[in-house]
Amino acid sequence: MRIDDTHKKWLIASLAIFVVATAIYIPYAMASPHGPSGASALGLTFGIVGFAFMVFAGFLGARKRFPLWRIGRAQTWMRGHLWLGLLALPLIFYHGGFRFGGPLTSALMILLIIVVASGVFGAALQHYLPTVMTAEVPLETIFEQIENVQGQLLDEADQIVGRVTALVSPLATAVPARVAIVTEEVAAITETDIAPLRMFYEREMRPFLEKPGERKHSLADPAQARAMFEGLRTLLPPQIHESVSDLSEICEEERELRRQVRLHHLLHDWLLLHIPLSLALLVLAAVHIVMALRY
Amino acid sequence: MPRAKRTTKQIAQRIDLNYFKRPNRWRTWRFVLSLLLPCLAVLWLAAYGLARNNRIYSSGKMSRAHAVLTEQCASCHLSSAASFRASASDQACLSCHDGPIHHADQVFTPTCSSCHVEHRGQLRLAATAVESCTQCHSNLHTTGGSVPYVQHISDFSSGGHPEFAALRPGFRDPGTIKLNHAIHMKAGLLGPNGARVQLDCDDCHRADSGNQNWRFTGATMQEISAAATSSGPTMTAQNYGPPSRSSARAYMQPVTYAKHCAGCHPLPFDKRFAESVPHDTPEVVHAFVVKRFQDYIAAHPGELREAASTISLPTRPLPISPRVYGSQREWVNARVAEAEELLWRKTCAQCHLLLFAPGADLPKVAKSNITVRWFQHAVFDHEAHRAWTCTSCHSKTTSSQETADVLVPGIRTCETCHHEGAEGAEARCFECHTYHDWSRAKTTKGKVHFSSALQIGRGPASY
Amino acid sequence: MSAPGTVDLTIDERKVSVPQGTTVFDAARLHGIAIPTLCHQQNETPVGVCRVCVVEAGGRVLTASCVRQAENGMTVNTSSEKVRAARRTLVELLMSDHPSPCARQQHTGDCELETLARQMGVEQPRFPHRSSGRPKDDSSPSIAVDFDACILCDRCIRGCSEIRHNDVLGRMGKGGAAGIAFDANLPMGNSSCVSCGECMVSCPTGALTNKVTTGTDLTKSSDSQPVTVEELEQLGVFKGVSGTFLSLNRGAIVRRKFRRGDVICREGEYGSTAFYILEGKVRVSISSPIAHVKTGGGATGFLSKLTSALARRQEDERDEETDQRFIPIDAPVDLAYENPVGELGPGDLFGEMTCMSLYPRSATVRAETDCTMLEMLRNVLDIMQRNKNFRAQLDRSYRQRALDSHLRSIPVFAALPNDFLADLRDRVELVRCAPGEVICRQGEIASDFYLVRIGFVKVSQEHPGGEMVLAYLSRGDYFGEIGLLEGDVRIATCTALDHVELVRISGEDFGNMVERFPEVRRKLEAVEQERLQQNRQRLTLTQSLPLDSFLARGLMEAQSLLLLDLERCTRCDACVRACADAHDGVTRLVRDGLRFDRYLVATSCRQCRDPLCMVGCPVGAIRRRNSLEVIIEDWCIGCGLCAKNCPYGNINLHPFEVMVDDPEHPGRKKAGVSRKATSCDLCADHAEPSCVYACPHDAAHRVDPTKFFAGILGTSPAGMQKR
């Protein structure tokens, strides 16, 4: 989600809440005999509001499970998640009077800080990365299907090479195609003509396509790949240059898909920290509420 | 580009339509971690729970005194079947401590934990906040309605705290022993054995009750110890402060004649005798004097004939004609009269206030009324302040000439160091005052055996 | 002296008289003398390129009888030694370059060249083989091209130009490099060829053979027996069909016998033949469950299923269902919605649409008794349909069995009394239209009301923005009533897309009906109001913005695009999951496709102005609602034609298991696989499309491209990124 002008209302509302909360907190903190405490009336209020924000933020995942329920658009929930989740941090600090307390409460504060920090980090990623992806990976496809598509690229490449092989005319004389025959006819292509292509394909390109996990490959570098294909073109008769171009573009697509995998991981892997920790946070927070009220 | 040769249809048909329903690595990881981490959290809680150890629910470090009870939550948090709440109740505190009430007529009694806040780290529980006191004292009311005290106290500052009672206008030192500090602090005083001395504060005033060398004492050790036991109650802090504050050197020991005055101020009564009269009641002194003269005249019968006296007494100015005494008794009487004249009018009267009732033979000495403890409602410890010179606080001493001068420092002197802020000494109420009336404290007898109470994780004793 | 307008000549010592202008070949043929030909076909202009038909006609050289007109007093010898020798040499020369046995010879054994060669004994030519040098062209989906087998007879060219007017084929090259070419020598599949098959049907050799359709091995399959011309001519329906034609097309019609319980054809399969029942009864049914796709448990979740299931209308009612009561199929009867089973008997023809236009089979046909039927290819059926007797039989059958239900299915006619309908039934006319023929034009005075019996009719409107297709009508649909009511002009143009047969009700009869039954008029007027309203809305919309030709790539073809703003999209799949949730676990959108500017044009129904998906549905299950949303009815048989037709891949088929009747054990069921098609319906029963609603990042938008891109179009069209 891009954080742009459409967030203005939320930003203003959040700032207002923050300012009001601070304005309440400061006199309260100064007036408390033994410092602000989570158990005091205001401390409890901060705690309840902060927890409510955290729970709402936590419900985003549940909201996404029922996308059709008319309980507010996904967008609204997402913005609420961002802003109210962010507000939960200062509110809980106000709740605890900036103290970390005992083992459980310290764990909660640390979890909260990590969750909010990872959330802010993730929001920044979601602000910048889509544009980066759009610009850098024009041939992007659906992430879960990348292996599938890579397999299809391999098949396509095989087919292209197969077609080129099929062009080899069995009855052609051993006149090298490079010798200029200015006719409209297709000059016969021999086996030796396409041998460089064959060799290149078997040694370089096919392994490149077969093992998408392997990073270090000469074709993985665009400049190098370009040079290799240029070189290849000089070795091959002009009739199959188009096939060579096709192969070159398949390599380009493969490179882009690999790039997409990395960008996708960058864009999404932070959630693997954020979500589980936030769930743990909510669980522990619930326990804390019960126990703190008890004791 | 082959991709550019592909149509939308060809691009779309590469995709398997059920891809989003199939488990994919990322979602699996998300699911697993989302179960795992909360489970770990719960396991963490459960581990402690199974060990019946509630220490993780503590909201902060315990004070030093209670730190050993960190895992024995039930020592303070008594749980009952009736109620969900198990906050630390007064009843729990009172099972080990006594905290006598402050005043019988206080409007409300705060709970122990409202002032002594636990779980705030390794600090002293007794160090309560100013607000614990000012919750009543900032606007004092009593159940009886009358407020015998200053009604508005907010903190320890000249604005918020009344001047010490002893220094309020109109208050005079009730002591009847005449003392001019200024003279005594002068240099070149006539000391024992005729030497010229400069007195120091601690030549008369010491907090120690032990028998250390007094510089100018004239008494022997025996006399000192005898005097010590007979000169009134020993001043210790125990009687006036909480049991924890048991500094034996808090208060200045009372000034006694034997230790502190006798060296320079002997009590001669007659030139025939070198010794002083005992520092005692007039009756004792009279008996002593009589005895001495009797013994003397018995030993020197020739003295009955009296030469011309060269002593000029106010009641018997010179010239004095010689006379002969008829009997020893007469002589003794005359001598005793002279001696007592000296004593009652000069020697004793130099310090004491003597009351001559009409018709009485002997005067009455007014009670010395030396204030034992100037701050009735506050505790002070000289030992804690031993770094400073006496005159840092008792600054008026060198210029004090009146006995009635109160030389105890006022609030401003204390405020020099004891003020709020990071660079001030402790200025909260508890530093000098106590809430609990320790004179009514009951001794508590411990009920819990050490080894069973501190079994960590085992035994139901703490639960 | 010959009679005026006739010519007298002698052919093989027989005196014959023929009308002036008759060619020698025809003159001989008319009198039973068969002259072998290769490049001549009866329905094409003779060109005389093969020279196999040469005869001696008294000149210095042998003359090609197919082009030579008969003259008075001509003496023709069709089988002199010279002629025979010439023919032999010709055929031998042709054979030397022929890759015998060619494809046709292999499949149907009736390569005309090789047949001739065999007859003349020149199967082993003396001359060395020379290849044309052009590889086989497999690009066309239905026709295989083998240039080596081409004898340059030009029959295909003439078939394509003269008969079909498609003008795809032509000659190229000179001398030894001469050959036939599609357009400017493009591969056949990439050319403007419409796979009508005329060239293939015309080709005498295996140069153009049918490759996709199963069952072309008509004579090869075990239970098919070739049928002789004589046998055919004895059947009443073949009266009037050219015997020559039949003999030339001997491989194109066979007799088949089926035993009781045999499946003759299955719904959804592709085919290219029609069946004419001689004996026996067959059962026509739709075995695909009459249900739509559904999943329990939504799209995601721990326990969601990976495959979809089906829900019948009783279990899950959909708002947008049609209230049509019959399912139109490619047979003389229609199947009732509740019980889709029908029966056909002797004299019935089924599989017309499959045969003529290569649409998939619309129903499953199983023999109820032992049957004998004729299976024929398109060229034969085509001729049959031109034949008067056959047509009369078809008409009769249709009027008796299907017309009623068709008329009843039109809502306005539903309440009419039976006798009125009976009367109407006899007065309607059955009209045949050729592909591309305009039935009625926008702006013309309205005069008739039409009902479609078979084929597809395109209903379109011209307005300032361009042409917009309102609907594709198929069997059972009707059009033309608005013009009749208004007494005004047509508001749309109706064009036949393929071989269309219509039921025409004259304006006068229509008027009578409307007068006698005022409630019909009222109903019609209601329908008319609705349609006019929709028309007006559409017109105002398209008039306000010029359609800009810059947006090629078919984007302007769309009325609604699903755009994903790639600079906001985090590729989280929430849209896909929401779509699947709203549609019983089956997503109607795919997050991949072409890009435009910073948007990804998602693969989801574009509600095209010209909905190509609707063309060809054999059971008329895909239709438009309120001019935008496309819905697919429950009786979709899963043939996949709509999915194939959609150029953007927006329609998908979903397979799932069903229990079908086990043919080997009647009465029992076994597991089979059925398919259903699905497509985006703009979530018409929700307030807004679910994908748009569910996107957390405000990245998904359903937009009208003309409005949405108007800004870009207006400012700098040249600045748009083009890929």
Explain what the structure shows.
- The complex is a heterotrimer of chains A (295), B (463) and C (723).
- Helix content of chain A is 73%, strand content 0%.
- Chain A is an all-alpha fold and 295 residues long.
- About 5% of the residues of chain A have low confidence.
- Chain B has 463 residues and is mainly α.
- The radius of gyration of chain B is 38 Å and the shape is elongated.
- In chain B, α10 packs across α11.
- In chain B, the strands form two sheets. Chain B has a two-stranded antiparallel ribbon. In chain B, strands 3-4 form a two-stranded antiparallel ribbon.
- Chain B contains 14 helices and four strands.
- Among the domains of chain B are: 49 residues; 113 residues, no CATH class; 69 residues.
- A five-stranded antiparallel β-sheet of chain C has the order 10-11-22-13-20.
- The N and C termini of chain C lie far apart (77 Å).
- With 723 residues, chain C is α+β, with helices and mostly antiparallel strands.
- Chain C contains 20 helices and 38 strands.
- In chain C, α2 crosses α4, α11 runs antiparallel to α12 and α14 packs across α15.
- In chain C, a hairpin with a 3-residue loop joins β34 and β35.
- Among the domains of chain C are: 151 residues, Jelly Rolls (Sandwich); 134 residues, Jelly Rolls (Sandwich); 159 residues, no CATH class.
- Classes of the chains: A mainly alpha (295), B mainly alpha (463), C alpha+beta (723).
- At the B-C interface, α2 of B face α16 of C.
How would you concisely characterize the structure shown here?
The complex is a heterotrimer of chains A (295), B (463) and C (723). Chain B is mainly α and 463 residues long.
